[in-house]
Design brief:
The complex is a heterodimer. In chain A, 35% of the residues are buried. In chain A, a hairpin with a 6-residue loop joins strand 4 and strand 5. By secondary structure, chain A is mostly beta strands. By secondary structure, chain B is mainly β. Chain B has no helices and eleven strands. Chain B is globular. Classes of the chains: A mainly beta, B mainly beta. Chains A and B meet through strand 5 and strand 10 of A and strand 4, strand 5 and strand 10 of B.
């Protein structure tokens, strides 16, 4: 079956631009996670949704980062006024429920110039 | 907060040899320890996991051991093959939502 998909796969933004990254989780998966992965590092937790409810956003680095999942399926991570330090791969993962295995998408590589 | 340290950062082995990657975690409340394999341009993929009530788990050529007292856990890959070449991440998860990842080990298997 289809896995987690993310779009776009690559995004180049000029500093100061806003970007929106999309995640399509596996159908029926209740839990959805966003991670940020800097070059040569492990993924770092950003935020978590249980259905449409954002239950933990403690990993969002600043108020320029915003995530939503309005219908409990597709999620969007938005970054306003991008800065160079936002350059990273943004990974989305979904799981059947909170304690279950997380399935990762391929990520969106964001480069801020 | 939870911190996960992973060693070595790079590991090179000959095909057929074993590879061992070690991790330590800081929060004794962590109760779930997954290992992920990440290939270039792809997201991490779960390869094996272990829960805190188990000391060892094996799946074909891959095994994981957990020492809760010492807060150590390790990944063992036997009879390595070139297709095992990738970046491997350990992780620790507390009750709740956050999974904390190590910095990764780049494994090279030379044919």
């Amino acid at each position: 079956g289809a896995g987690v998909s993310q779009s776009p796969r690559y995004k180049v933004a000029k500093r100061g631009q806003d970007v929106a990254l999309r995640c399509d989780p596996i159908s029926g998966h209740v839990s959805l996670f966003w991670y940020q992965q800097a070059l040569g590092q492990g993924p770092e937790f950003l935020t978590y949704f249980q259905n449409e409810a954002q239950l933990d956003k403690s990993g969002l680095p600043s108020d320029r980062f915003f995530a939503e999942r309005p219908e409990g399926s597709v999620s969007t991570l938005k970054i306003q006024r991008t800065q160079q330090e936002d350059s990273a791969v943004y990974l989305c993962a979904s799981s059947l429920d909170r304690g279950q295995e997380q399935y990762f998408g391929p990520g969106t590589r964001l480069t801020v110039t | 907060g939870e911190n996960v340290e992973q060693h070595p950062s790079t590991l090179s082995v000959q095909e057929g040899d074993s590879a061992v990657i070690k991790c330590t975690y800081s929060d004794s409340a962590s109760n779930y320890f997954p290992w992920y394999k990440q290939e270039l341009g792809k997201g991490p993929q779960l390869i094996i996991d272990i829960r805190s009530n188990v000391g060892e788990k094996k799946d074909q050529r891959i095994a994981v051991t957990l020492n809760k007292t010492a807060k150590h856990f390790s990944l063992h890959i036997t009879e390595t093959q070139p297709e095992d070449s990738a970046v491997y991440f350990c992780a620790a998860k507390l009750e709740g939502f956050k999974t904390i990842f190590g910095a990764g080990t780049r494994l090279f298997v030379k044919a």
